Structures are given as structure tokens and as C-alpha cells.
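cron nightly-structures :: item 1 of 1
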Amino acid sequence: MRATRSGTRERGASPRGQAVVLDAPRTFRLVEHTPRQPGPGEAQVRVHAVGISRGDRDLFLGRRPAPYFRYPVTPGREWSGTVVAVGEGAPASLIGRKAVGEGLRNCATCAPCRAGETNLCAAGYEETGFTLPGAMAPTLVLPARHLHTLSPDADLTAAAFLEPAARAAAAVLKACPLPGSRVAVIGSGALGLLAAQLLDAFSPSELTVVGTSPDRAELSRRFGATAYRTWERSSGLAGFDVVIDAAGGTTTARAATSLLRPGGRLVLTGIPAGGAERLDPAHVVARQLSIGTAFGASSGAWSYAVNAFSAERLTPLELLTHQLAVEEFERAMELMSGGDPRAGRVLLRP
């Protein structure tokens, strides 16, 4: 570790390589990466792996709604890595630690932040990989207070899934399931299956995953589901105490209300594209349904997910089907856009 004239403390040389820059929908370039030294209170992380989320795909295709993006930008909000340098005022003890980090920036001082709702910071929306430089680059700089450190023996490849796990945790915590509840999760992607695995810890009497592909049945069961249905075979599903819509589709929220018992609880997560079917207020009120939402993940949800991962209650590595070099970004976008029916979660390695 050495001190520089700017007060930055670091270990070894910052890696160089290539970074992805999205200039506009479907328009990207690979550029030589110049690591930025961390400023006061910041940390620089050497990126081990970065996942590609539906949000990244929507950003690439130009489908992400305003104001949740800003071009040009280096994408990548799902990442894991090792802290290699810290700026003035950040703990030097972070250097050399394996870590993941929160993407939503927050001021830590406004009323929502002080109430624990750091994902609703009154300072406005800023997020790694969408409005701020993301992790599809050899290094990433972010506020050190947004880091969550991991054990020295943590699997950094698996840890790259902790960002969607934190969003799943936010939905599960909002759902407040009780032991013995009948629970359903809509969506058999990473968010839905990670939510199922977290819900399994609450000992539901039934945990049904509803997806679009029959091929996800066995994987859903390995993530804790007691049953798996596709929408085509969902006739008769009803009476659930809790439903989490982890698909965020244009029709799934409205469909989810039909799965609930009177007095049941629905949690919506994910931002659907424009044109989503509206919920019927009369249906919601007459059946006294409770509807909650989860936008991103608060610091508390992040801690919950990291603790579950450390306790081996989350085992996300089974979701991974492809690991590609960052230079293969275009191929990764093809995979995430349905170019290969066998594709699950895709990781890039800077």
C-alpha cells in the first residue's frame, strides 16, 4: 500500500483494459479504460465479474424509461470485485477486501435515507451503470460507504449475483411472509428464483413459481419451489396469501391479483415497459388486497442479501450459463435478447 500526492491509498497498479460505452440505443464502442483515482470518501474496485440484467438489455435496446438512464454511459450495475484503493477519509482497511456495492446512490441525510429508505433518496435518482459509470470496465469507483464486504473465501463469481439478490430481498421483506403461508412468485428469471430461495427460509406451506418456459421447472425446485407452472397451465391457481411479481411484465401485475385470496398481499418489483395493463381499483378494494412495491434495494435489503449469501442460504451460481470477455458485449446482448434459448444469466469478465 502506498500514499499518493492526492491522499489516495492503494495496493498495486490499477488494471487497464477495455470498457464498454453505450452512446445511444444499439450503439456502443469499446474504449481503452483509464482508471479514475478515488476521491474523498470513495473506493476503487478491481472488477472480477459483471452480470447483465434486464435493465442493461433495456438500456441497450432503448427501452429503459426516462429518467432512469443517461447516454453515454458504461453499463453494469451487477458486479463483484476487490477493493484496490481508497480516497481520503475512506477506511484503509477496505483495501484488499472482496466486496459488492449498492448501485443506487444516496445522500444518507435526507428524511427517506434517515428512515432507512435509501433507495428513495430525496436527492434524486442516480445509479451505477445507468446514469453513472458502471462495472463493464476493469475498475469501478463508488462511495466507500456503499460497499458491502465479503469473507476472504467468498466466491466472487457467485457474488456478482448479489445485486439482483438484494432487489429480491427488498421484495421479500416488503411481502412479510409468515411460516405456513401459501406463496407464489411470478417470474422464473434470476430475480424470481432468488426471491423463491429467500422465501424458502420462511417455511411456506406452498411455494409456487409461475414462469413462461417449461424448462425452468427443475431449476425452480432447486431454488425452493414446491411447484412450477407456466401461464398456459396456471388455470386454477388461486388463494395465495402472498404473491411477488418479479417479472415486471406488462400483464403480470394485473394477472397476479387473480392469484391472491381476499385480503392477500401483492408485491410488485421491476419497472414494466410502457403500456402495462392497469389494476382494477374496484377489484383491489372489494377483495381488500394489499399492494406494495419494491424499487431497487435499500441498504438494509443489501445487508439482508449479503448475510444470506454468507450463510449459504443463497446459492445463485446455478443461474449462470455463460461467461464472456467484456469485448464480447454484443454477443452477451444477443444472448440476453433471446438469441439462445439455453441462455440463463450471463457474466462478463473485464
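cron nightly-structures :: done
Residues 162-175 form the longest helix (14 residues).
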